[in-house]
Specification:
- With 500 residues, the chain is an alpha+beta fold.
- The protein is built from 15 helices and 13 strands.
- The strands form four sheets. Strands 7, 8, 9, 10 and 13 form a five-stranded antiparallel β-sheet that branches.
- A hairpin with a 6-residue loop joins strand 3 and strand 4.
- Helix 8 crosses helix 9.
- The chain is globular and about 75 Å long.
- 47% of the residues are buried.
Length: 500
């Protein structure tokens, strides 16, 4: 039954084929909105599907395309939301949300195969392999078997072949559900004419109150995304901006730019990971291993240890700038909170451990001081939290009862140089960063490190950096995922979709 009060769609203008834009002239009407600016959201549902009738699906897709939000539209949405908030503040009104819905779509290699779309020129071995196999080969996920027979310890739905995902983000559960009903109607879901089969859906929500923008362990998230030349104006101090091709396929900086088919240009590879977090257990670990110092309370010692494991305080303040005392004002100041480089710190860990999560995942001068560019390794993260807040019972028991965590997502022009390399060669590698000059081994990334029985790291005690801290549990557990490609609006319209 059709929704009697459907949300009116916004129709993007599909630009005609023309001369490719210059590196500084990105076509923001052609790039899906989540990639460069993120779809505005308080809630977001990821709808994973299989294609059952390829030709019918491609015809149906032409009716979905008008609902897909571009970067240009997402930027205008954010401007409108910002103006609305300012107006509320100026007039002393209680802030309230305005209706806002965004839809994006992405396909796996298996989805392109089903649709008989030749994706060979995407040239990415991780994408072609798929994440289920790569989870054992490269990512370190737990499971049984090996090679093509690897069976990860994932939720059953994610062990099935996923052909695509539709992302629906918005201001409320009601409006997102309305849009999903509209999308299911487009593809005939629940009828004999269905062209897709829903495998599963997962919903994420921004955390409430002061914890908004913080992940479930309590740390402010999303601070260090790269700034993109040609999109981000007047970027704040910090790592130098990347060329658009580090994120957007076919643009300047994409190492395979000259090999891409026209329909691939302005798309981006999307990595999705379903990550569960053991929050009470993590905080219990911090309390049991709290750092000690003159005048330091146990709670302060636990906070300092957590900051040294993450590389930032919960406020977002980087320990490379505020190594021993939190500075909340620094944490929320975009002009300062990303302006650090681990400069001249290759021979000591007093300021920041080599294995701290932020340092493992974005090593900055640990590589750049050696003349090694990390531009091709940068990723644009777009995650959202899922699950309830920790209950009093869970805190008292120091044990997770209710599932919660992060719907991790990131975009890049190469999964093999981006997410896969970061996880395999940096995060999971106890010897990284490889140019450090101390007797002790850096150790595993304590937050996201996978695949090693020797879960330990050095450098957590600033006064005795040679001390080894053994990690007695894993606090982030992968339970599903897949690799996708998010095509441009033009690619969807002119190559993947079919007209009636």
């Amino acid at each position: 039954m059709a929704d009697p009060n459907p949300i009116p769609p916004t129709f993007p203008s599909i630009p005609p084929i023309s001369t490719p834009p210059t590196p500084f002239d990105l076509d923001l009407k052609n790039i899906q909105g989540d990639i460069l600016t993120g779809l505005p959201k308080k809630t977001e549902t990821w709808y994973f599907f299989q294609v059952t009738e390829p030709t019918t699906f491609r015809r149906n897709l032409s009716h979905l395309i008008p609902l897909i939000k571009s970067v240009d539209q997402a930027v205008r949405d954010r401007d409108h939301i910002g103006k609305h908030k300012r107006d509320d503040e100026e007039h002393g009104r209680k802030p309230h949300l305005i209706p806002c819905i965004g839809v994006n779509i992405a396909f796996s290699h298996f989805g392109f195969q089903k649709l008989q779309i030749d994706d060979t020129k995407l040239i990415d071995t991780a994408f072609m392999t798929g994440q289920r196999i790569d989870a054992g080969k490269s990512l370190g996920d737990k499971g049984t078997g090996s090679g093509s027979n690897f069976d990860p310890d994932w939720e059953p739905e994610f062990k099935q072949e996923l052909h695509g995902v539709i992302i629906v983000a918005g201001d409320s559960h009601l409006n997102v559900e309305k849009r999903i009903c509209q999308i299911e109607e487009i593809f005939g879901v629940g009828t004999v004419a269905a062209s897709i089969h829903k495998i599963t859906s997962v919903r994420g929500d921004v955390r409430p109150g002061t914890q908004s923008a913080h992940e479930h362990f309590g740390w402010l998230d999303g601070i260090s995304n790269p700034k993109v030349i040609g999109f981000d104006k007047n970027p704040p101090p910090g790592p130098k901006p990347v060329r658009a091709g580090a994120i957007i396929v076919g643009q300047d900086g994409d190492l395979n730019k000259d090999e891409r088919e026209p329909w691939m240009v302005d798309g981006s590879f999307l990595v999705f990971r379903y990550l569960f977090q053991k929050v009470p257990e993590f905080h219990d670990f911090l309390a049991r291993n709290a750092l000690q110092g003159p005048g330091m309370t146990p709670d302060q010692g636990a906070e300092l240890l957590g900051a040294r494991l993450f590389g930032r305080w919960k406020s977002g303040a980087p320990i490379d700038i505020a190594p021993f005392i939190d500075d909340p004002a620094l944490g929320v100041d975009p002009e300062r909170n990303n302006n650090f480089h681990y400069t001249a710190e290759r021979n000591f860990q007093k300021i920041c451990p080599f294995a701290a999560h932020t340092r493992k995942s974005n090593p900055r001068d640990d590589l750049e001081s050696l003349g090694i560019s990390i531009e091709k390794n940068r990723i644009m993260r777009r995650g959202i939290q899922f699950g309830p807040e920790v209950t009093r019972h869970e805190k008292a028991a120091k044990r997770t009862i209710h599932g919660r965590g992060l719907l991790f997502a990131c975009y890049q022009s190469s999964i093999t140089d981006g997410f896969q390399l970061i996880q395999q060669a940096w995060i999971n590698n106890a010897n990284f960063p490889f140019a450090e000059q101390t007797p002790e081994k850096p150790g595993l990334d304590p937050i996201l490190g996978q695949g090693s029985s020797a879960r330990q790291l050095s450098g957590t005690n600033p006064n005795k950096p040679e001390e080894i801290l053994k990690l007695d549990a894993e606090w982030v557990i992968p339970r599903g995922g897949e690799y996708f490609f998010s095509p441009s609006l033009r690619g969807l319209t002119e190559t993947i979709a079919l007209t009636e």
